[in-house]
């Protein structure tokens, strides 16, 4: 696939018009207040992952609606003092998989928390968290239109809330330094990271690779790939729901969340990405309110930088905490 979106020089300056509802902030404040009516009730249970250098725990905690969310927690064996931590969110369709899938940050010396994504985990990696709430409207296959006629019912209201609670669950462990938590994810996980960076104050950093869930309307206008294509397909049938759908999506759009983010951030983007078009990513990145950097992979699609980007993330994390220590 050749370059199809705006030239890089334009992408670096691209700021699309933002459309957000006047109750955007109160919607999210009320959502999180409702979630916190349920005890977090975190359980860390030792898990035999056959890893001699990393201690692994199966995690369960209460997310949106008090629903039990699964996860993994890992720390370098022998750790006795609180560590910086990385909370990971997962790409579309995937689940938490197995602990050895998440060793990079643990091997680098960080506490590592992985959140399972409710209702997902049957595409690529297995998951263990059901979504006991169904959308109120008919939907296309997938998750993008589940409950899309009302922000109160929308699927990602539950997921973003689970993700906020994941930070709280990680912070509850005695081997986590709650003032040094970084959140991270790619694709859907990057979109979730962007939301959590907007909704949780005091984070040490955020790492967002080829983030999904941002610039919904533009994405549906310039690509026909899934998962944004789920929205297109839905609207091709439900022709009278366009404004209602995009009103709901505005509460979950990274372009509206980014101006509320203040933690230092590392983004990545792939210029040939027809799943998450570069302009949707730069549209959010350019609005991001905190200190930020972006790695550009010129000849890649949605795989982005892959292992090269993993190295960039580890270097960025090392520098982040080194600089923070120097400032203390």
From TrEMBL:
<protein>
    <submittedName>
        <fullName>Acetylxylan esterase</fullName>
    </submittedName>
</protein>
<dbReference type="GO" id="GO:0005976">
    <property type="term" value="P:polysaccharide metabolic process"/>
</dbReference>
<feature type="active site" description="Nucleophile">
    <location>
        <position position="187"/>
    </location>
</feature>
<dbReference type="GO" id="GO:0052689">
    <property type="term" value="F:carboxylic ester hydrolase activity"/>
</dbReference>
<dbReference type="InterPro" id="IPR008391">
    <property type="entry name" value="AXE1_dom"/>
</dbReference>
<feature type="active site" description="Charge relay system">
    <location>
        <position position="273"/>
    </location>
</feature>
<feature type="active site" description="Charge relay system">
    <location>
        <position position="302"/>
    </location>
</feature>
<dbReference type="InterPro" id="IPR029058">
    <property type="entry name" value="AB_hydrolase_fold"/>
</dbReference>
<dbReference type="InterPro" id="IPR039069">
    <property type="entry name" value="CE7"/>
</dbReference>
<feature type="domain" description="Acetyl xylan esterase">
    <location>
        <begin position="1"/>
        <end position="319"/>
    </location>
</feature>
<feature type="binding site">
    <location>
        <position position="92"/>
    </location>
    <ligand>
        <name>substrate</name>
    </ligand>
</feature>
<feature type="region of interest" description="Disordered">
    <location>
        <begin position="118"/>
        <end position="142"/>
    </location>
</feature>
<dbReference type="Pfam" id="PF05448">
    <property type="entry name" value="AXE1"/>
</dbReference>
